[in-house]
Amino acid sequence: MTIAPPGARQEEQTRYLDIRGLGVRYGGKHGTEALRGLDLQVPEGSFHAVLGPSGCGKSTLLKALVGLLDMQVGAIEPQPRLPAYVPQGDSCFPWLTAAENVAFGLEARGVGKRERLQRARSLLADLDLGDFADRYPHELSEGMRQRVAIARAFAIDADLLLMDEPLSALDFQTKMRVQSELLGLWERQRSTVIYVTHDIDEALTLADHVTVLSTRPALARETIEVPFSRPRSYRDVRRAPGYGDLFARIDALLEA
Amino acid sequence: MSDALGPFRAILLGATIPLIVLAAWQVASTQEWINPLFWPAPSTIAERTWDELMGGALATDSFVTARRLLIGFVLGAAPGVFLGLAAGVSRVLREAVYPTASALYVVPRIAMLPLVLVAFSINDPARIFMVAFSVFFIAFFSALSGAEQVRLTHLDVARAFGAGRWRTIARVVLPGAMPSIISGLQVAMGFALIVIVGTEFLAADQGLGARIWTSYQVFDFPAMYAGIVAVTVLGVVLNYLILGSKRILAPWQR
């Protein structure tokens, strides 16, 4: 594991997903303010982790980007066109098989049944779930269901993938495995990913940049570049020089 | 300690209580500890049921009742489920429909019969309407409740992945509500059976309800019990049909 030269990636990545002054308030004018003037610049094609204290508005940020919430103020440039979304918790449709779940987004995009199921099966095979393509979610383990939800997001080849703590409920071993599979899928597609997590190790393992948010209403406190070269794994990152300092720096920002 | 039972043992266990009751009834009736005019022995009832079945009258009445029941059930269940789902996804519709549905739901069905007879006269449409009217509200409330219980996460995923309103209803709300709808229809079927038999008691010359009531009036109790047996068999068969439909319509349900 080496540390990439500072700024090496930025030189290649000149285009950004630019979020400016994003504000969201729940419950009307006198309701709770979840985000206030949040600015975030995400280089296109990068993996961007967002960390923050519990309840600071991380999930709200993703929902606003997906278009599930009305933004009261702010702008996103370029406007994401049907981004892929992995919500928090178990999001597989219980009435669809694993393959049908993965193919769901393709169906909404008008891809024919045969083609979308073929694509879904291929993605599931990549995730070692080929034998489970025709099983219903209740027949799968929690880790398998999360992999199905991740495969569903990757299936549509979206420019922007928004993931809300998709691995938070998994045990340590499963989490490491799914992290590695997630990175494998992402490195093939290189979509822009905004990945919300509360786990510093996970952020450092997966991301090119980590943005730490303040308490609610959230503001971006600082964005930190993660200098570890790819391909990488949790174990590589833990052993890399500079890991401890980065961890401590992010931890201090979260505590501040 | 395991509670698992083999299918044969489960059937045997389930049959124990009815067999004990029938045996006690048989002895009590033949020994005349109870009045055999009102409580004929199960063997007498079985014999009479068989005779009536072979004679064709019981089968005809069963068919008449089943036909009225099924037509009324479909005419009540289909719009009930549709409107319930629509009210589940449209707040405006829910606010508009819910108070009226709640008020009509609690009106005793049999209290509606005179009004229904005035509207339809003593014909099949009146009996079918009574069933449909009863089934409609159960179907409506079960579909509404099922639609409201669809997880927000699933609706968010559908919306995020670009599913429009109709696709969301067809691919998320309907299957999400299906277990609740099927449970509701199971209850509605039992209710429909009560209503059709009750309606036939009062306003019919054919059908199992009419047979039971006429037999009672002429003190032909074995024939009355034969009608009750036929109603029970009809109810059990229809209940199994709905349970079977669950395997087709909601195969993901454990």
How would you characterize this protein structure?
The complex is a heterodimer of chains A (256) and B (254). Chain A has 256 residues and is an alpha/beta fold. Chain A contains nine helices and nine strands. Chain A folds into two domains: 14-36 and 44-83 and 159-256, 3-Layer(aba) Sandwich (Rossmann fold), CATH 3.40.50; 93-157. In chain A, the strands form two sheets. Chain A has a six-stranded mixed sheet, sandwiched between helices. In chain A, strands 2-1-4 form a three-stranded antiparallel sheet, covered by helices on one side. The radius of gyration of chain A is 18 Å and the shape is globular. By secondary structure, chain B is mostly helical. Chain B has one domain (40-249): MetI-like fold (Orthogonal Bundle), CATH 1.10.3720. Chain B is 81% helix and 0% strand. Chain B has helices at 7-30, 42-55, 57-89, 91-105, 113-120, 124-148, 152-160, 165-202, 208-217, 221-249. The model of chain B has no long low-confidence stretch (mean pLDDT 91). Chains A and B meet through helix 3 of A and helix 7 and helix 8 of B.
Q: Which helices and strands appear, and what pairs or packs with what?
A:
The complex is a heterodimer of chains A (256) and B (254).
Chain A: H1 8-12, E1 16-26, E2 32-43, E3 47-51, H2 58-66, E4 73-77, E5 84-86, H3 98-108, H4 113-126, H5 142-155, E6 160-164, H6 172-189, E7 192-196, H7 200-206, E8 209-213, E9 220-225, H8 234-239, H9 243-255
Parallel strand pairs in A: 3-7, 3-8, 5-6, 6-7
Antiparallel strand pairs in A: 1-2, 1-4, 8-9
Helix pairs in contact in A: 3-4, 3-5, 4-5, 5-6
Chain B: H1 7-30, H2 42-55, H3 57-89, H4 91-105, H5 113-120, H6 124-148, H7 152-160, H8 165-202, H9 208-217, H10 221-249
Q: What labels describe this entry?
A:
heterodimer; A: 256 residues; alpha/beta; Rossmann fold; 2 domains; six-stranded mixed sheet; globular; B: 254 residues; mainly alpha; MetI-like fold; 81% helix
